[in-house]
Amino acid sequence: MTEDRFHLLGMGGSMRIPNRIMPPLMNNHGNYIVSMGNVCRWLARQAEELGVEIFPGMACSALVMEGDRVAGVVAGEMGLVPGEDGRPVPGPAYEPGMELRGKYVLLAEGVRGSLSQQVIARYGLAEGREPQKYGLGMKELWEVRPEMHAPGRVLHTMGWPLGKGAGGGGFVYHLNDRQVYVGFVVHLNYRNPHLYPYMEFQRWKHHPLIREVLEGGRRIAYGARAINEGGWQSLPRLVFPGGALLGCSAGMVNVPRIKGNHNAMLSGIHAAEAAAAAIAAGREGDLLEDYEAAVRNGDIARDLRPVANVKPLWSRYGLLASLGAGGFDMWTQTLFGRSVFGTLRHGKTDAASTEPAARHPKIDYPRPDGVISFDRLTNVAFSGTNHEESQPPHLRLKDPTVPIRVNLPVYDEPAQRYCPAGVYEVVQEAGEPRFRINFQNCVHCKTCDIKDPSQNIVWTVPQGGDGPNYPNM
């Protein structure tokens, strides 16, 4: 990275925030801009050369238990079909999954992992912690005109188009080969259920600062993913009988930097070292307390503690107040190792933050122009998403009546808007509203599992390796 810029956006202009007043931890100079998809593919080759077995094209769908201990996972269950109630049942071509067992099971599923959520609930790992918070990150890969390409330049924006009731911001990363990542994050604790995160992203691209980069270019790919935002105070206990939680399965993202890969890698190193030491010492099966201690007292803690109050300050006081107070707090912790605020609480979950639609005005979003901005379904086609249509939907409702009976009259069914892939619709059939789930569109962002105000939607893994395929993302 060669150049780092921070801008506060208004509707038609912007103000650059001087780098010299930014806390040192916000400095990105000298870092590398890479495609994590390509990095993971490269890492897979290195792992296989070391003898690691990788099982592509299958998902881990269940835990293997031995008493109260997690002993492994089930992977590659195939041939399930929808039963009479829509639940999956074995079909004519059913193949049971493999039980992959290990001395320790390290869960690194990323944000809101389905098995990780089961483990957190089963062992009460989040008890006494603040609720986990999330943002929805949406990203496009563009090829831009040569004169607008500046390899190594990083731009972060805050402010417009989000108003007082919603937080978030955008980024532009210049890669090589005239390629640019443009992305936008919306904090999922917004109150107005009429807010449409995807359209906020599309509107943001029309700001003059962003539009001038994209004009004359072409979109190559699209994707979306939830991001952990709870930080230090939301980290659950990391170890459980038989294993541990790694990276974003626990929530190790540095929120103001919008970065968590470094901590995920460190957590993997710490967990591997702790497991190897326990096995070598004949303590196989013991809780990996050394791993917990390494995270709580090492580099991950030193990265997350100084930014612990950024998210709650933003949630309580809005963007401008939090810029001053959050910046002051980060500087104080950098210089003196402590915060004048202590460790602030988050309070509500993101689902509980959603307020009834009647309390908020509807938001009029401009239609995408098909050049700079695009409709959801067109963009989903650029995500490489595919789900075999005969499989049971991996998006399940605890109570099928809730969307129309509760969410529609109270919240104007926000699933129609918070999903960045157009999975959920309210359609009219015989003059009556019906809730439709287009699971084939799902880009696996997990937003529905997080933001549904009734907590009625459960995200589970689809069969096989189905889902989005992100080249160079």
Question: Can I get a quick summary?
Answer:
With 473 residues, the protein is α+β, with helices and mostly antiparallel strands.
Structure description:
- This protein has helices spanning 36-49, 114-123, 197-204, 208-214, 261-280, 289-297, 299-304, 310-336, 350-353, 376-380, 402-411, 415-418, 447-451, and strands spanning 3-9, 14-17, 60-66, 69-75, 78-82, 88-95, 98-101, 105-107, 134-143, 153-159, 168-174, 179-187, 218-228, 239-240, 243-245, 395-397, 424-429, 432-437, 457-459.
- It has 473 residues and is an alpha+beta fold.
- Among the domains are: 59-129 and 239-306, 3-Layer(bba) Sandwich (FAD/NAD(P)-binding domain); 309-342.
- A hairpin with an 8-residue loop joins strand 10 and strand 11.
- The radius of gyration is 22 Å and the shape is globular.
- The mean pLDDT is 93.
Termini separation (Å)? Answer: 17 Å
How many helices does DSSP assign? 13
Helix percentage range: 25-40%
Mean pLDDT: 93
Largest sheet: 7 strands, mixed
CATH class of the domain at 59-129 and 239-306: Alpha Beta
Please supply descriptive tags for the structure shown above.
single chain; 473 residues; alpha+beta; FAD/NAD(P)-binding domain; 7-stranded mixed beta sheet; 3-stranded antiparallel beta sheet; 13 helices; globular; ETF-QO/FixC_UQ-bd; ubiquinone; EC 1.5.5.1; iron
